[in-house]
Amino acid sequence: MAAPQVEGEKRQVRRRRKKNAQRRPLRRVLRYGLLTVLALLALPVLLSLLYRISWVHPVSTLMVKDLVTLQGYTRQWTSIDDVAPVAVHSVIMSEDGRFCSHSGVDWEALNTVIEDALQGEKARGASTISMQTVKNLYLWQGRSFVRKAMEVPLALYFDAVVSKKRLMEIYLNIAEWGPDLYGIEAAAQHHFGRSAANLTARQAALLAVTLPNPAERNPARPGPGLSRLAGLIERRAAKAGGYVGCVR
């Protein structure tokens, strides 16, 4: 009787070992997957600290895509001090009038958008320049609640560790102003044949209102609607005052 019992116990041990052996690859995959996710989460945190350094010139995910697909892109990095102040002011007044007063997220605007969406109204944007910057640096394009949920903490962190002036400088140099065309210097040269330092108030306003849809808007050949919008931004930029104090 002892021999069959011992043999049965051996079979049970072999089955347990076989089952554990089958589980090990799954555990290994899960472990590597978790480590990959943690690394991806840590990357923006570390890069944001690196991007505080003035001689570091960040690239956007769209620029990386253009390189990977062998399309290439045009971008000439320029210091914010070498950009016409009216151009900086125009972008702020067009894209994010509260840029200097919020901490990365305009909660009032975001809450209004959420309330409108819950009431079934058409969705509209509430992205700050900080949110657009982290989206361009770390995330993907297109509308997505998942992406928006990731934007918020990233924008708050980025705004906390990077100065407003440096943040604006990065945004101006990674924003898309046309197919494979990035940064305000390349945009000024391409559309108006002059450097960003020499943009007129009208040209600066036209470039600013192009940002929401650079694929379809051409600042060098604006239609009536784009011209009217540029006129509005030009007037706002002229009276920006304290709204732009953080980038001076």
Automatic annotation (TrEMBL):
Residues 71-221 form the Glycosyl transferase family domain. It holds the Pfam family Transgly. The keyword Cell membrane applies. It is an enzyme of class 2 (transferase). It comes from Nitratireductor basaltis. InterPro entries: Glyco_trans_51, Lysozyme-like_dom_sf, PBP_transglycosylase, Pep_trsgly. Keywords: Cell inner membrane, Cell membrane, Cell shape, Cell wall biogenesis/degradation, Glycosyltransferase, Membrane, Peptidoglycan synthesis, Transferase, Transmembrane, Transmembrane helix. GO terms for biological process: cell wall organization; peptidoglycan biosynthetic process; regulation of cell shape. Belongs to the glycosyltransferase 51 family. It catalyses: [GlcNAc-(1->4)-Mur2Ac(oyl-L-Ala-gamma-D-Glu-L-Lys-D-Ala-D-Ala)](n)-di-trans,octa-cis-undecaprenyl diphosphate + beta-D-GlcNAc-(1->4)-Mur2Ac(oyl-L-Ala-gamma-D-Glu-L-Lys-D-Ala-D-Ala)-di-trans,octa-cis-undecaprenyl diphosphate = [GlcNAc-(1->4)-Mur2Ac(oyl-L-Ala-gamma-D-Glu-L-Lys-D-Ala-D-Ala)](n+1)-di-trans,octa-cis-undecaprenyl diphosphate + di-trans,octa-cis-undecaprenyl diphosphate + H(+). This is Biosynthetic peptidoglycan transglycosylase. The chain crosses the membrane at residues 29-51. PANTHER family: BIOSYNTHETIC PEPTIDOGLYCAN TRANSGLYCOSYLASE, MONOFUNCTIONAL BIOSYNTHETIC PEPTIDOGLYCAN TRANSGLYCOSYLASE.
